[in-house]
Amino acid sequence: MNATTKQITIRQNTYDVVTDLDYGARIGSRFEPQTVAIMEALIDPDSRVIDIGANIGITSLALAQMCPAGRIAAVEPVPATYELLAANVRLAALSHVSTHNFALGKEPGEVVMQGNPNDLSGFFVSDDHYVVKADHHSEAKAQVLRLDDALPQLGLDRIDMLKIDVEGFELDVLEGASEALARFRPRVFMEMNHVALNLWRGIALPEFRKRLLKIFPFAYAIGPDLIADLSDDSQSTKAFYAHVYESHKFTDLVCGFDKADLAQRLALIPAIAQKNDRIFAEQDARSEAQFERLHKRLGEAEQARDAALAECHRLTEERNKVLADRDKAAAERDALRSEIHGMVSSKSWKLTSPLRNFRRTLGL
């Protein structure tokens, strides 16, 4: 894996993020506005959040902004990805974010994860359901814990929200968290990815829906113009169809136990998204204005430099002319000295010396 550092705006702050090359190229300069808006709607400033499948830590950086008085436990199983997660948390100096290198599932043990080593965002659990034999995939072993068993390691006194993005392994995570879900009744923000579910876990969307609704009394899929209630056959069918045939719409799921609370928070998403867009636009405008100012100053500095270079060139030419004139005068002087020396040293000069002396005596 080749790592690079890239500036990314996450919610309202811009960070230097260490990332792998392929994922970094896809992220863009602003991280997933809808993802950010949904998470912001689901948590409070003092929330306790578990970021499951934290990847390189971008969602944890966003959550840390939203929960300045809270705690975030970021869980990432792939060792190479975890190194980038830990590095990004350190770079951002986030004392209220802890990082943990293991997987969460329904049974403790060990799993093999596969993925492209140059794109760490796509690693998935490889077992009897699906195994890739290809040069562009690598394997990494990861310890698996049940969330119910891992809670003491996470350092949280409660759970207000779970964010889960584990490439089709979401149900396994939830089925290993039955005690924590019953005790804390958190809101859950998770991914629905029919490719990962079908290809890597052998789970069709109807089965996924059925098992999800056994865990949560309320589950919603968020689309561009509809928040689909997955307990409603008609709405879930519409969401599933759009998800499969219309470029993965309704990928974002929100689940929970308090219908009124979820409804109130889901209603906040458009306003939060608009606020974040406005702030980003204002920051972008300020950055653009600053860039223009700096560009203008750079132009002025380059003009001043060019003028100074021209003056330096003129002075250099003038100096060279003075030096040439000096050298010419020195040469003429040396020639005259040589001529005088030759004259004084000549026989005729010596023979006429008495005559010159007599003339000087007479004052002639």
How would you spell out the order of helices and strands? Answer: EEHHEHEHEEEEEHEHHEHHEEHEHHH
Supply the CATH architecture of the largest domain.
Answer: 3-Layer(aba) Sandwich
The end-to-end distance, rounded to whole angstroms, is: 103 Å
Supply the CATH superfamily name of the largest domain: Vaccinia Virus protein VP39
Percent range of helical residues: 40-55%
Main β sheet profile: 8 strands, mixed
Structure description:
The protein is of the alpha/beta class. It folds into two domains: 201 residues, Vaccinia Virus protein VP39 (Rossmann fold, 3-Layer(aba) Sandwich); 95 residues. It is 53% helix and 20% strand. It is built from 13 helices and 14 strands. The strands form three sheets. The protein has an eight-stranded mixed β-sheet. Strands 6-9-7-8 form a four-stranded mixed β-sheet. Strand 1 and strand 2 form a beta hairpin. Helix 2 crosses helix 11. The radius of gyration is 39 Å and the shape is elongated.
